Amino acid sequence: VRLTLATTLVLQAIERGHRYGFDIVDVTQFPTGTIYPALRRLERAGLVRSEWESDRTAAAEGRPARRYYEITPRGVEALEASLSRLRTLRIIGVKPKTASP
Amino acid sequence: MRPQRLADALVRLASHLVPKWQRPEWQREWRAEMQHGTDDPIGRSAGAFADAVCVRGQAANVDLWLGDLRLACRSAVRRPAFTLLVVLTLALGLGSTAAVVALIDDILLRPLPYRDPSRLVFVWHTLPEHNVFELEITPFDYQSWLQARSFSSQALASPESFTLTGGDEPERVKGARVTASMLPLLGLAPQIGRGFAPAEDRVDAPPVVILSDGVWRRRFASSPAVLGRTIQVDGVDTTIVGVLSPSAALPGPLAGSDDLWLPMRMTGRERHNEIGHNYTAIARLANGVSLEQASAEMTALASSIATTRPDTHRGIGVRLVPAAKQTTRDIRPALFVLVSGVVLLMVVASANAATLLLARASNRRQDLAVRAALGADRIRLLSLVCAESVVLAILGGLAAVMLGDWILRGLVPLFSHGLRTTAVSINARIATLTMVAALLIGGACGVVVAAGRSTEWLGDALRSRARTSGSRDIRRARNLLVVAQVAFAVLLLTGAGLMVRSFVRLAHVQPGFATDHLLTFRIALPASAYPTAETRAAFVRGAVGRLGAIPGVVAVAVNTRLPFGHSRGANGIAIEGREPSHEQLVADQREVTPEYFKALGMRVVQGRPFTTRDDSRGEPVAIVNRAMAQIWAGRDPLNQRVRVTAGDESSGWLRIVGVVNDVRHIDLSRSPVAELYRPYAQMPLDSFMVVVRSAGEPAAIAPQVRSGIWAIDRNLPLYDTRTMETRLAGSVAQTRAIALLLLVTATLAAVLAATAIYGSIWYSVTQRIPEIAIRLALGSTRAALCRLVVGRALTLTALGLVIGLGASVAVAPLLRTMLFETRPLDPATYLAVLGVLVLLTVVASVVPAKRAMGVDPVVTLRE
């Protein structure tokens, strides 16, 4: 899967322990319309996997059970590759477009 | 409306975009998220639409495929006959394969249930001069071999039958006397109690016994308090010291002697017995020692013993056989035939299923072409065609698993000797493999059809009935499959034909006595109650008299070794007036009561039968069979004298008083050997078979016979009670089973091949209807058309026949060891197979030929 900046950030948020949709929305400040499709694509590509929180834990906190996302080993590799690409971009930079004579 | 409620409503609205089957989970996630608490619930819920659209997009392909599957299911239901045919064909091929794989898994692949079983070997004596390569050893050899460095441990076993008394009914059980080293050597431990101590191998140790799990459950209701209790084994008080685990059993030829184990308890004299070859030796190879190294050491040891003990060990060698090989050896040939037959049947069945699926696919050509014309890409077409094959394959796979379990239940009794476990079943692994195989066959057919020339179908198929390149591909594939099926069917039919011919020849062999109306059973007199020859002879006299008085009993007799009783009693023989030669004379010795020859319907061809006067006080006499009478080469054997020279029972000179006809004792396939009959009263052994000839059904008098024996001694068990015909059937059971299995698989393969021929010719006729119409219009006769159709079918069969017969000629010699008086290249069998196939082909092409002849050229050409 092609990791865009947003997708990379979503993956990084999950890797750093933000495990459900709105938590990732809060930390990345991206809209839900970006986060959720990114999550679907990442899961379909096998870079993250999801599982339902146990009903007992959720009930103890007085809320419905959440769907938790977790990064897979392949996801970790993809994240590292994407971050490294982004860092390179930052170092090299992009030259401003010059006006033609 | 409050923002939170509005947000919830928006999520609900968005959920309608999500495919139905994913909707509950999607809603559950969003509902949980909306509880997170946020300042902008409406803004957050707006993302639900983007998410729903994304999920729908992802599911679109799955949806399409599910739609294809639904369509395929409906199509399968709409054509029940076609569905049933494919499912049954797959079930037949894969089910029988699954059953055989389960058998092989248990018999050949599962390791023996012992510690490091690959290091266990059987150690046999050999007598190469007499073509004997597996002879039991003597206790003297065992003691001598203990010095061998190639083995880390050795053990001895002697299978025996024992009588358990003290309960409601006396019970005869099969067990073994084993050395104390046996349990640790095999790596077995009793589930309760202990094994034997080395001191218990000596006769002066208190008698102890280890019970099998079965006896423990049956006679002692699994009571742990059984340890230390005393039971009577052959009338001797014996203390129970342990109970074996349920799976504990002796390996190889010792299997089945597991009801109870007793220690060897040998006297000093018995430990040095050099002539009693009655013990089976098992050893464990020492670490780092190979089978070849151990064999070399043992051969050197054997030749050293042969030099120092020439009287008893001249010409005796040693042979080591790995325990796993020894255990499966007897069953391998039958298993080989079974596996070959079933694999061939699977190939034929799979090819047949493929033929049917290809036929179905060719019928869908137009449908596929239209879809292609409307823009369906190759993947879509593949999905469509594969879905139908996959649905049928799944059904076929499920049916195969069920049918396989059923077939397995029928096969297990035929292979019970080699099975490691009593509960062989189609386990999850084999069921999964069966399903995968079914899916592969289904998938492969789909791929062949869709990936072939799908784009070329577009123009071709839309031209209605024209013969096209796409149809040509399928037709070629079908013809190839038909030829393959015929070839494999020929291979199976030839094997089956040879085995059936062999079995028929075997069944017509005369055993040398009348097998009907005979009830037989064994009695073993315990030494404690019948310690002397006189007491044993008196018991037999009394029993014969009492049983003879039962209404409906025609004759009663006793023989120590009955025909088809798995015991030969071969002994060395010396002839009076003849120098002992290098070639040892051997005869099978049996002790019989006077009525024996009459009871079995044997003929005394010379001299006289035994009488009641041939007892311990009379002159020692013997009767020989015709085969043994040949020893005197034309001279009259009567009044010649012979002596038994080897074995436990050496005799004085015996005068020959009669000659009887030959009997096939071991089994019907073995030619009669030299036999020496002696009067039971002069050699009253403690274990013997009783034969009762009845006027009516022999099994019906069994209860009265049992009561008759128990009226004399209530503690005597009658065991191995069977009619002689059952024994006879048992001796040919393996040949019959193999013949039957091959016949069934071959018949199925032939029927499948015939249906394939029928399908192929029918398809071909349907395709060629316009051509047939033109031929008719141009003056071709209907008889010529019939010849055209049948000729085409015969061409396919002829190709298959040539390949199949060639393969049969190549592999038939492998059956040689299982054939009786039948050559592997038996011309009659090959001709019969040829005839059957040609007949089947003609029958299979009759209906298509009638269809071709029924074509109306006017109607067809107008269309």
Description:
The complex is a heterodimer of chains A (about 100) and B (about 850). Chain A has a two-stranded antiparallel ribbon with strand order 1-2. In chain A, about 25% of the residues are buried. Chain A contains 5 helices and 2 strands; from the N terminus they run αααβαβα. Helix content of chain A is about 55%, strand content about 10%. By secondary structure, chain A is mainly alpha-helical. With about 850 residues, chain B is α+β, with helices and mostly antiparallel strands. The radius of gyration of chain B is 37 Å and the shape is globular. The interface of A and B includes residues 21, 23, 35 and 63 of A.
List its traits.
heterodimer; A: 101 residues; mainly alpha; two-stranded antiparallel ribbon; 5 helices; elongated; B: 863 residues; alpha+beta; six-stranded mixed β-barrel; six-stranded mixed barrel; 27 helices; 22 strands; 16% strand
SS summary, helix count of chain A? 5
Mind describing the biggest β-sheet of chain A? 2 strands, antiparallel
Tell me how many strands of chain B there are.
22
Q: Major sheet of chain B, described briefly? A: 6 strands, mixed, barrel
- State the distance separating the first and last CA atoms of chain A: 41 Å
Average pLDDT of chain A: 86
Give the neighbour order of strands across the main sheet of chain A. Answer: 1-2
Provide the fold topology:
The complex is a heterodimer of chains A (101) and B (863).
Chain A: H1 5-15, H2 21-28, H3 32-44, E1 48-52, H4 55-60, E2 67-71, H5 73-92
Chain B: H1 3-15, H2 23-34, H3 41-78, H4 80-109, E1 120-127, E2 132-135, H5 139-145, E3 151-165, E4 171-178, H6 182-186, E5 192-193, E6 208-211, H7 213-220, E7 230-233, E8 236-243, E9 260-263, H8 268-271, E10 280-285, H9 291-308, H10 310-313, E11 317-322, H11 323-328, H12 332-363, H13 365-373, H14 378-411, H15 428-451, H16 454-462, H17 469-507, E12 518-524, H18 533-548, E13 553-559, E14 570-575, E15 585-592, H19 596-600, E16 604-607, E17 621-625, H20 626-629, E18 641-644, E19 654-660, E20 675-679, E21 687-694, H21 702-712, E22 719-723, H22 724-731, H23 733-767, H24 769-777, H25 782-811, H26 827-853, H27 857-862
Parallel strand pairs in B: 4-9, 6-8, 15-20, 17-19
Antiparallel strand pairs in B: 1-2, 1-10, 1-11, 3-4, 3-7, 3-10, 5-8, 6-9, 7-8, 12-21, 12-22, 13-21, 14-15, 14-18, 16-19, 17-20, 18-19
Helix pairs in contact in B: 1-2, 1-3, 3-14, 4-12, 4-14, 4-15, 12-15, 12-17, 12-23, 13-16, 14-15, 17-23, 17-25, 17-26, 18-21, 23-25, 23-26, 25-26
